[in-house]
Write a structure and sequence with these properties.
319 residues, mainly beta, Lipocalin, 3-stranded antiparallel sheet, 0% helix, globular
Length: 319
């Protein structure tokens, strides 16, 4: 579960046929993509990504909700457990140099699940903190002249997910869903490649990343994860200080098989394909965004875990 992102920029307004520069911010689509262990155990970035959809430098707070259900047993007719994964994050994206960006996320998680007999289990606490760096191979160079030709952008990078969230081995015992955790207990690594292009106030971004997960102190290792996505957007400038951007996209996640004591754990791999709609409104240096995601197809944990929906809301200060 970690991140990659693509940078695109839309800095011209379409009140007239001749574009004008946007002086308030530069757009970086792709931050809203999916970087998450199934459900919640490694959700430093939750399911919703590691940055705002439209501003490159920011600090803020974000809430993420994920709703799942999993089988209470190993049989096809076993009853379902309702699971809710909630994360509140302090996050920021800070430039170190003209081309280098550092992203940090500190999550607090509170999850619950409801068993068939209506008893509940609750866990809460600090999640896995993430620190990532990305280098702008192709980077927007702001100036007062707006090109009407398509512009291309490329970032490469990677980072770490730290094992700051607690991992409880007992939550794996007798449970089909091993991801009901605050953290996965391991130091994980990520590699990312991101490409995007923009034309006037339209943009498209694509993302590929691969998360490499290691064994935790309890001899449990979550499977490696591959993520991909594509997003399209258009920004509407309603005034010099206020803009609204709808975003639509598709995303996929592929999960490798978990291991315990170096032996494969049955029904722990899978794949997920999602559709996404989001909207961000920006006023001066403030941005408010909402994101909604729903599965198009899925095969998680041998079809014993099902995603119902993912939603998020964030409020950022851009600088």
């Amino acid at each position: 579960m970690l991140l990659g992102f693509a940078v695109v920029k839309a800095n011209d307004k379409q009140f007239n046929t001749i574009p004008e520069p946007c002086e308030n911010h530069y757009h970086i689509l792709g931050f809203d993509d999916d970087f998450c262990d199934t459900c919640g155990c490694g959700s430093s970035g939750g399911s919703m990504g590691y940055g705002t959809g439209l501003n490159d430098n920011f600090i803020g707070i974000r809430y993420i909700h994920q709703q799942y259900r999993s089988r209470d047993g190993i049989f096809n007719d076993s009853p379902w457990i309702k699971e809710n994964f909630n994360t509140i994050q302090a996050w920021g994206n800070i430039p170190v140099s003209d081309r280098l960006l550092i992203n940090t996320i500190v999550p607090f998680q509170f999850h619950n699940r409801i068993f068939p007999d209506n008893t509940e289990q609750h866990i809460s606490g600090l999640g896995d903190v993430s620190i990532l760096a990305f280098y702008n191979v192709l980077k927007v160079k702001p100036d007062s002249i707006v090109s009407i030709k398509p512009e291309h952008y490329l970032q490469i990078g990677g980072g770490l997910k730290l094992p700051t969230g607690s991992y409880d081995q007992e939550n794996n015992e007798g449970s089909v869903n091993p991801s009901f955790q605050l953290g996965n207990g391991s130091l994980d690594y990520v590699l990312g490649l991101n490409y995007g292009f923009s034309y006037r106030n339209w943009g498209i971004s694509t993302m590929l990343n691969y998360a490499i997960k290691t064994e935790n102190p309890d001899n449990y290792q979550f499977g490696n994860q591959f993520n991909y996505s594509i997003n399209a957007y258009k920004t509407y400038y309603l005034s010099n200080s206020f803009s609204v951007t709808p975003i639509a996209g598709l995303a996929g996640e592929v999960y490798g098989e978990n291991q315990e004591y170096n032996l494969p754990v049955a029904d722990t791999k899978g794949d997920l394909f999602l559709g996404k709609l989001s909207l961000e409104a920006s006023l001066n240096n403030y941005s408010l965004g909402v994101v909604a995601m729903a599965p198009i197809s899925q095969n998680l944990n041998g079809n014993k875990v099902e995603l119902k929906n993912r939603t998020s809301i964030y409020l950022n200060i851009n600088f």
